[in-house]
Specification:
The chain has 790 residues and is mainly β. It is built from 8 helices and 45 strands.
């Protein structure tokens, strides 16, 4: 069957066809094909009969995208909600239940993330891996449960790295310096080298180091100001060997390491119980854009290590693949919880200012070890029947814990929550949790494609899965409901099928359709903090001990075309996703707790359009746009002791699903020209527009943007505070001017040229009574980057 040319391949070809000056003058620039492995076998992107985008290395370099978040706005249907450094949450096609926060370790991800063949997803903590020397990033839209299992409910993202090359020695080095408006200087140094060690063995190594410029200023209790508190650094390396003793066997072991160390968070405070313009017994403080209030140093650390080995053995008819991986990851989130604690000790318990202003560092620690093994057998010929079948096993050991130590609480006369020591909590440790998890998964999967005619291809597949999760709950401290070594378990099994059809109308137009099922495992809720709850909230939010699997059935039709002799492409896809048992996160009112509740029905429907064109040999333009209508189709109510019925946490028929906007648009244009003899110049402009959205479902209820203030903490000139509970739409412009030769690529760039203050997520504590703020994007950033290839 004829292989066509999609949008991502078009964009990739633009880079590939301009690797040296003068090529536009010597031959017609056409769009080329890109090979992907979205269905566990190599095929051109256009042969994949469902919606997929692939951002290639050339495109990533030209756009300046260095990680998933900076890439997301350029991909139709992909949204990344920034919840702090290294804490991004991915949504594809609007399928999202909203913010997953640090103290919900039992919640699984809705979009799977892979580094080559190894799964690296971890609910809230999507790894913020650097893209350097990445061959491409594949975004598979829609459920991918058949081949990729749980966590690929809305889609799958795959980082595909460049493999060691046995043919020649090569390498690169890249350096960037940049300055952030009203912030610091940052920069990076990155490089890679590929060395054939013999005719059968090669090594490829990548290393990078990056300094992140801070741009958030923090007011201090003494009236001073700390500048640029959210600076930090990232360094990492990947080393891979490739051993090919013959033309049948290939063995590729690899290790990857990355460490992120941030000094603070990109939070812009609008209200803080300890620092606001309404206080009368404490100094009144007004906070401007990109300002916050802290009493102590916040930190984020993420140490990631992956070791895997891929073995391929091929014959003329069969390809056997084995992937073995082991991941070790340690994440520390150290945040200033003084405002949260003050809302309890001062606001609820009416203790003195001496008590509610004590430093209250809250440490969240996550330790994860993941071992996986996959065996696959696939067809390796060009017959009418193509197939792949395999088994998968994984074992995840995850240890999560929190500790809130308010040093001096008892010594300074704190009585409302004394004595503080318990079976596990130490003196002045007002909250303590320790939750070890073990999750085991076994699956058998297969998919078969058959060319019914020269134009019609049908694919069927299914995955049978079996999961078991065990954990032990321990909560202690005065703020917690004491729970010591209480076991919990949940399990699930089932089948995820998929049916796809592809029909070639002619040599330039391909139609496709699919029905696919995806799933996300359920889990166990932590007990709510009844010691902090009002009686009504305790009754409303208590009793939800477990939550069920979430399931999505996706219906999709689309078309992929090429035109003008390979100079243009037009791809379109329309979908409807039926969501059952949506796992919605609820803030449990005054309890300072969160629970997951299943919403019976929801849906997401929309359309994605991708266009690429080369009107002339020197000019390229592309468009990626999506429109999504994602809503709840169920209402959940609660009845209090007086018989009054209220809608629970915004779960009402017709309310929007959070995280993703209703529309996104990315327009990119590049013009190539002769800069000087031996140098090709280029100018790139990129415009992105993203619609309004919510962080959580509850943010769209009446009164969601109004907070009742505690009058006994700092006094007060008013009893309520109002804020925007939705995230406004935004538009950004990125500009790039550069020149290159066969070896050099040097460019000046300005990102967020209009200095848009992008609100990426709503950040609040205790329903906003302790603090209300927003995670905000990076201001205007100007810099220079240079790369040398050899």
């Amino acid at each position: 069957m004829r292989k066509h040319l999609p949008l991502a391949a078009a964009i990739a070809a633009i880079s590939a066809s301009y690797t040296s000056p003068g090529i536009a003058q010597n031959q017609q620039a056409v769009l080329e094909e890109v090979v992907v492995t979205a269905r566990k076998r190599s095929e051109t992107l256009q042969d994949v009969p469902f919606s997929i985008a692939a951002q290639t290395e050339g495109q990533l370099r030209r756009s300046g995208a260095t990680n998933l978040e900076t890439m997301a706005d350029g991909v139709a249907g992909l949204a990344v909600q920034n919840l702090g450094p290294g804490q991004s949450q991915v949504a594809i096609r609007g399928i999202s239940a909203g913010q997953i926060v640090r103290d919900q370790p039992g919640v699984k991800e809705q979009a799977g993330v892979y580094l080559d063949e190894s799964v690296i997803s971890l609910s809230l903590f999507t790894p913020d891996l650097d893209f350097y020397d990445t061959n491409r990033v594949e975004v598979l839209r829609g459920p991918q449960g058949t081949l990729f299992g749980s966590g690929s409910l809305s889609g799958t993202i795959r980082y595909i790295s460049n493999e060691p090359d046995l043919a020649e020695t090569s390498g690169s080095i890249s350096s960037t310096a940049q300055h952030v408006t009203d912030g610091e200087w940052g920069g990076s140094l990155k490089g890679h080298v590929n060395i054939p060690l013999s005719d059968t063995l090669a090594i490829r190594a990548v290393a990078y180091a990056e300094e992140f410029a801070g741009y958030i200023d923090a007011h201090q209790p003494n009236g001073g100001m700390k500048k640029d508190v959210n600076s930090g650094n990232r360094e990492g390396a990947r080393i891979a060997l490739k051993f090919e003793p013959n033309d049948k066997l290939s063995i590729t072991p690899r290790v990857a390491y990355q460490n992120i160390d941030m000094d603070g968070f990109n939070r812009e405070d609008h209200y803080n119980i300890l620092a606001n313009p309404f206080t009368t017994t404490r100094p009144a403080i007004d906070m401007d854009e990109r300002e916050q209030y802290t009493q102590l140093q916040e930190k984020f650390k993420d140490e990631f290590f992956l070791a895997d080995v891929t073995v391929n053995y091929s014959t003329d008819e069969l390809l056997f693949t084995s992937i073995t991986s082991w991941t070790d990851r340690d994440v520390l989130v150290l945040r200033d919880a003084t405002a949260l604690t003050a809302s309890i000790t001062g606001g609820s318990a009416n203790e003195s200012e001496t008590i509610y202003t004590l430093d209250a560092p809250l440490a969240d620690e996550t330790e994860v070890e993941v071992a996986t093994q996959e065996f696959r057998l696939a067809s390796n010929d060009e017959s009418q029947l193509q197939w792949v079948a395999g088994v998968f096993y994984s074992e995840i050991d995850r240890h999560y814990g929190q500790s809130l130590v308010v040093a001096g609480y008892e010594a300074n006369g704190g009585t409302a929550f004394a004595p503080t020591a318990g079976p596990r909590a130490s003196t002045d440790e007002l909250y303590y949790s320790d939750i070890p998890y073990e999750l085991k998964q076994f699956a058998v999967f297969g998919e078969m494609s058959y060319d019914v005619t020269e134009r019609l291809n049908l694919t069927v597949g299914a995955r049978w899965f079996d999961f078991e999760e065990d954990r032990i709950l321990t909560f202690d401290g005065s703020f917690a409901t004491r729970t010591i070594d209480v076991p919990g378990e949940t399990d699930s099994s089932g089948v995820s099928p998929r049916i796809l059809a592809r029909y070639d109308l002619n040599d330039d137009v391909m139609l496709n359709a699919q029905v696919a099922k995806g799933f996300r495992l359920g889990g166990i809720n932590d007990p709510i903090n009844t010691a902090l709850c009002t009686p009504q909230d305790a009754a409303t939010f208590g009793g939800f001990n477990e939550f069920d699997d979430e399931e999505v059935i996706n219906y999709e039709i689309g078309a992929k075309t090429t035109a003008f002799g390979g100079r243009g492409t037009f791809n379109i896809s329309a979908f409807y996703s039926d969501i059952e048992n949506l796992q919605a996160t609820l803030d449990a009112g005054t309890c300072s707790s969160r629970i997951v509740y299943n919403v019976e029905d929801a849906h997401s429907q929309g359309i994605e359009i991708e266009i690429a064109a080369r009107p002339t040999d020197n000019w390229e333009v592309s468009l990626a746009a999506s429109y999504i209508d994602a809503e709840l189709d169920s209402t959940v109510t609660s009845t209090d002791s007086g018989g009054n019925v209220t809608i629970l946490a915004g779960i009402e028929d017709g309310n929007e699903l959070p995280t993703a906007s209703d529309y996104s648009l990315a327009l990119t244009s590049t013009y190539f020209f002769e800069l000087t003899e031996g140098w090709e110049g280029y100018v790139t402009g990129a415009f992105q527009s993203v619609g309004a959205r919510y962080t959580q479902i509850n943010d769209q209820t009446a009164g969601a943007g109004t907070v009742s203030l505690f009058q006994n903490v700092g006094g007060g000139t008013q009893s309520t505070f109002n804020f925007d509970s939705d995230l406004d739409s935004y538009q950004t412009v990125n500009l790039r001017f550069g020149g290159r030769t066969a070896n050099w690529d040097i460019a000046l760039f300005v990102n967020n040229a209009t200095d848009e203050n992008v609100r990426q997520s709503l950040d609040r504590e205790r329903g906003g009574r302790a603090r209300v703020g927003y995670r905000v994007g990076q201001p205007r950033t100007a810099g220079i980057t240079a790369r040398y290839d050899f």
